[in-house]
Structures are given as C-alpha cells and as structure tokens.
Write a structure and sequence with these properties.
heterodimer; A: alpha+beta; twelve-stranded mixed β-sheet; 13 helices; 12 strands; 55% helix; B: alpha/beta; five-stranded antiparallel β-sheet; 8 helices; 11 strands; globular
C-alpha cells in the first residue's frame, strides 16, 4: 500500500521534470552501455586471438633453428635444421608423443597466371602432414600427396587470398601457374582462415618440399620443422622428445646449449590471452569511471530535487510523514532513475554489440550485463541516500518556512 | 454510515492543550530574541514564560500583530517546533519527551493543520491530498478512499476530488486543506491565518466550515490578525511581544460558536 503510493509519487516526481530526469538517466545509460560494450569489445578481441591461434592448431609445435638463449652464441656454431633432422624426429621419437613431422621451407617469389602477376605472402615447401598439423583444410581440389613429394612433382595448393588474386572467379584447380620460372599445376585451394593482425594466413602457396627446394632454396637447410603432437595434452611430452632426438643428432650434451627453439601454440595462446586480459581490464576501468560519473549525476539531480521540494517535504512532515517514508520516497526516486537508466543502458549495450567496432566483433559477457545493471542500481541507492537522508532529517518548521 | 467526525467527548475533560511557562528564544547572548516570553519575573526580570489551557471543544482565536509570537506559538502547539523551555501537554501527553518518530505520529493523529498558503502538494489530486495523512497513518486503501471522499464532500468538494491544486481556486484549495486536516479526526485543528489569502466570499465559506467543525465538538485554535475572523471564536487571546495581554471569552466552551448561535442553531 505505502509501497505502491511511494512508487507513484516517485514516478510523478520524475515526470514533473522530464528533461532533467531523462538527462540523468542518460548518464547512467551511457555508463552501463559503455561497461557492457567495452567489455564485449575486449572479450571479442580475446576470442578472436584465441580463434586465430587455435586455427593454427593447438597441438602443433614449431622447431626452428637458433639458440634458445638468443644471439649469445656465435652464428657459425649454430647447426641449421635439415631434412635429416626431420627424418630423425619421424623415425626415432616416441610415436606415442609425436604424430607427424613436416619440414618447412619458406620463400617468396612471384606467381604468374596468364598476364596476371602476383606476389603471394609466402611460398611454402613441405610434406602433406603440414596441412593437418597447421589445421589447413582444402576447399576445392585436394592436397598434394606423399607421391608428389617423392616425385618432386610441380603441383601446388593455393591459399584463399592467393587464389582470389590470381584467378578471381575462375576455378584454379587444374590450371597452370608459373612460380619463379617453374610451371606448377594447381591441385587444390585452401579454405579461408581469416586473418588477425598483419599477416594474412590465406596469402600462401604450398608445394612439395623438394619441388620448392629445387626451384628456390636449394637442398640445404629448412626454416622450420612442424611437429604435430599426438594430442593437445601431450605437447609437453612431444617437446621433450624433440629435444632429446635433436640434441642427439646435433651431438650436443648440454640441453642449455641447444641450437634450436621449440615454440608451441599453447604458450603463444597464454601470452596473447594475458595481453587481451589487460586490454579488457583497461576498457572496463574506463567504463566503470563513466558509470561512477553517472552515479554522481544522480546525486546532483536528487540534491536539486530535494532543495526544490523542501516545502513539500515540510508539508508531508506536518501531515505526519515518518522519517522513513520521506527517506523511502527520495530513495525510490533515485533508484528509479538508475534502474530505468541501467535498463536502457543494457538495451543500448546489447544493440551496440551487434556492430563490429574497429574491426573487432564484440562478444557480450553475460556477467558484465548483470554486473553493470546491478552496480548501476546500487549506485542509485548509494548516491541517492545522501540527498534522501538530507530530506528526511529536515526539521519540519525549517522545511515549511523554506521559500 | 459512520461519520468522519468524531463526536465522542471524554468523560473527564482533560485540557487538549496545557502549556506551562513556555518560552521560545532565538539567538544567543545579547542578540537573544524572545519570541515567546510571558510576563517578566518581578525580581530577576527574566521571562517567566507563557502558560495556557485550552479545553476540549473550545474555539480559540490567537490575535496579534506580526512579530507578536503568535506563529511561534502555533508552531510549538503543532509540534513543528520545540520550545526553548517549559512544558507542553497535548491531550495529556508531554510532547517534550517524544522523539522525532513519535512526534510525526502525534502530528498525524492529534493535529490537523490549515495554513495561510494552503500548502497543498503540487501535481496531486484533491483526493490524494486528503488521503495522504491516512496513508501515513497506515489506513488501508479502500478505507482511505472512503474517508477521504467523505471529508471532501463535507467541505463541498466531492465533485472535484480529481482536480489538482492548479485547477482549483484559492477558496477551494483551502477547503481541500481543511478536509485534509480533519480526515484523521484529530484532537485539535490548528489554523494559521486560514483566510489570509482568500477573498471575502471564500473567507466566509472557510470560516463557516470551521464553525461547523467546532459545533460538532472539534477543538479549534485559529491564528489571525483580523477582528472579523476572531469574532467567530469562543475565546480570543491577544499576544503582544510574546505575552498574552488579554484573554476574552465570547461564548461558553459548551455550545455552538458565536457565529452559529447568532443564526439560531440550537446547542
């Protein structure tokens, strides 16, 4: 009864100053919407990073040459990785930990098709195991095979971007392109992975290792050896197997003097995640400040309201309104401001998160919606309590005399 | 149907108001102003304070020029302000010992206010205005509405219960205020220059209402500076500089107020 009455008076009070109430709500609205939206952007970028890293394959390990300690060792003493190392890994390592091994050479060159000339981001020479390890799926045609590798056949699989640049709408499968003066037959086109960051993973030409070595790099060293662990859980086991085998084949006794590096995607993932987490926290802090400013806006407007209605408070007290009723009335008013503002803010945040912001697709965190709404309502109560308390503790005679 | 106005008279008439040696002063030291002082002590010269009894059913007009202390007296009688010293018993209860919570109860149950400037709550319908003291008293919605409507029809505004203050004339607003003051059946109606802002016709309407309320047994304390208004009272007090300088009885406590007696209304 009293509750309903209080609510009605609160709505009436807010409606009496529509513009003022609307502007105060706008403050809360912006605060809540920015909390939801900025956290969604932070979360969205984190999700994007995670996706792009998992698309590389979480159970893949990359072995590259060079000392783990950086440039401390003389360059001459660093033994480059070779196809022999890859073979050693494939033959000697525990098959329970390592599923497949693919040596990789990377180079650049110009591809020609008809009168179209295009320089793909990279030309990769490898074994068929590379496709599975690096999570590359073929969209059209097929992968090259081990026979192609053994026969050094001049076949190539194109990344989606390269295919589009060279062939546009044409079907590339079966067509001939010229790479660095050597004609290659396109056997397949990979699915687009979508890029994050500066390098486009789809801008690539992949061909059998000996073919690329023959045409570009020569039969010396390889840039990387891509190893696929048996599962995502066995990457650590795989890593120690690789270390053991390569130390033996490079004849190095001290593991700390290893002349190769092993990076795994999982560690990359953690590093990237912690970066995006910092980013999210930073965005959240900015948004929280705007929510706080919205709350101060409520205090401000409620103080004005209390001053404006001092006489009314006096009348109510003369009619026997207990302190709690006056307190309740103004608290209800400020809470109503924050609840409506926060509700609209949630709506605005939800709508806003459907648009991509600076290239990031926001992913709303459900907790942030509840949290922002809850905090906004609490702010309404907290920041409204000072003006409401002031109203409630006015002496009736002072309030009645107020002009 | 039960009537909104309580006609019961207590078996042993306790004075509705009993004040003893009441003073009210503002400021400190040399700058002290005694709004209520009463006669000075013949020996020390200190103010002795105002003492006054008002009987159940009486109709008292408090007169005086501005600054005479009549508004201060009214605020203290209405529990809106607290005296500097002295005792105030309202309906036998010592008000000086009550806390804020209990004072709001006293204002709600025992006192009905009518102000010079109407003091209606803006943007609120006449019905809601009259319901308000009942709402604070915790009366249920249906009962509240019934009693508020009865009070409004008593002041002749039953048809205008949905009007807001800015849709009512001054006289109508004051009648709403009277309805609001009497709806809780208080022990005492306190009217602070209720006709000060009204034209002569509205003044007559409002005074007739107050006369009628007094005739049915309600104690009325009315503050005014107009002799015309004071003529309606059974007893007239004059205040000068915080002292009661004259106390004239115009009609007995029992029986109708003078204005109605002149019209030949039986006691």
């Amino acid at each position: 009864m009293i509750l309903w009455q209080t609510l009605r008076f609160a709505v009436g009070g807010l409606a009496a100053n529509k513009v003022r109430s609307a502007l105060t709500m706008l403050g809360v609205l912006i605060g809540v919407a920015s909390v939801i939206l900025l956290l969604a952007v932070g979360n969205g970028s984190s999700v994007a990073v995670k996706d792009s890293i998992t698309s590389l394959g979480t159970n893949s390990l990359t072995v590259s040459s060079g000392s783990a300690a950086g440039g401390a060792r003389a360059a001459s003493s660093v033994k480059k990785l070779t196809v022999a190392d890859a073979k050693a890994l494939a033959n000697d390592a525990d098959p329970a930990a390592i599923k497949s091994v693919a040596p990789v050479v990377t180079t650049t060159g110009t591809a020609l098709y008809g009168n179209i000339s295009y320089s793909p981001g990279s030309i990769v020479g490898t074994y068929p195991a590379y496709f599975e390890t690096s999570n590359q799926k073929v969209a059209k045609g097929e992968y090259f095979t081990n026979d192609d590798v053994l026969g050094s056949r001049k076949v190539a699989v194109l990344g989606a971007t390269t295919a589009k640049q060279l062939f546009d709408a044409e079907d590339p499968v079966g067509k001939q392109i010229v790479l660095g003066g050597t004609p290659f037959t396109v056997v397949g086109v990979l699915q687009a992975k979508g890029g994050s960051g500066f390098t486009d993973p789809d801008d690539v030409v992949i061909a059998p290792l000996p073919t690329v070595q023959n045409a570009f790099t020569g039969f010396g060293t390889v840039n990387q050896i891509l190893v696929q662990a048996a599962s995502a859980d066995s990457t650590t086991a795989a890593q120690s197997e690789i270390t053991r085998v390569l130390l033996a084949s490079h004849a190095i006794a001290d593991p700390s003097k290893a002349d190769f590096r092993i990076t795994n995607q999982a560690s990359l993932l953690t590093a990237r995640e912690s970066t995006t987490k910092t980013f999210t926290v930073l965005l959240g802090a900015v948004a929280a400040i705007s929510l706080l400013v919205g709350g101060i806006g409520i205090t401000n407007i409620m103080l004005v309201t209390v001053t404006e209605r001092t006489r009314e408070i006096g009348i109510r007290k003369a009619l026997g309104a207990p302190r709690a009723v006056i307190l309740g009335q103004f608290l209800t008013e400020s809470t109503l401001l924050s609840v409506i503002g926060a509700g609209l803010g949630v709506a605005a945040g939800m709508v806003g998160s459907h648009f991509s912001i600076v290239g990031i697709k926001p992913v709303v965190i459900p907790e942030s919606v509840l949290g922002a709404f809850g905090i906004a309502v609490a702010i309404g109560l907290f920041f409204g309590s000072y003006p409401a308390n002031r109203a409630a503790s006015l002496r009736p005679i002072d309030a009645l005399r107020h002009e | 149907m039960r009537h909104v106005i309580d006609k019961r008279v207590p078996a042993t008439p306790v004075p509705v108001i009993r004040i003893r040696r009441l003073t009210k002063s503002y400021g400190h030291g040399d700058a002290t102003v005694h709004a209520l002082r009463g006669p000075d002590d013949p020996e020390t010269g200190a103010p002795q304070g105002v003492s006054l009894d008002i009987e159940q059913g009486d109709f008292v007009a408090v007169m005086g020029s501005s600054g005479s202390g009549k508004s201060t007296l009214m605020n203290i009688l209405g529990c809106l302000d607290v005296p500097t010293s002295g005792r105030y018993l309202l309906d036998g209860v010592d008000v000086g010992h009550l806390d804020e919570q209990q004072l709001s109860l006293v204002r709600n149950r025992k006192i009905g206010f009518v102000f010079q400037s109407f003091n209606l709550i803006p943007r609120t319908t006449a019905l809601a205005q009259v319901e308000l003291p009942l709402a604070y008293a915790g009366v249920r919605a249906a009962e509240r509405r019934r009693r508020a409507l009865a009070a409004l029809s008593l002041v002749g505004l039953g048809e205008r219960s949905g009007h807001k203050p800015n849709q009512l004339s001054g006289g109508q607003q004051q009648r709403v205020a009277v309805a609001r003051a009497l709806v809780t059946a208080p022990a005492m109606l306190l009217a602070d220059e209720p006709t000060g802002n009204l034209d002569s016709r509205s003044t007559e309407e409002v005074l007739a209402l107050i006369d009628g309320l007094n005739a049915t047994g309600r104690t009325v304390v009315l503050i005014t500076h107009e002799d015309e208004v004071a003529r309606h009272a059974k007893r007239v007090l004059r205040l000068v500089d915080g002292q009661i300088v004259s106390d004239v009885r115009q009609a007995p406590v029992e029986g109708p107020p003078p204005a109605l007696r002149d019209l030949g209304v039986p006691a």
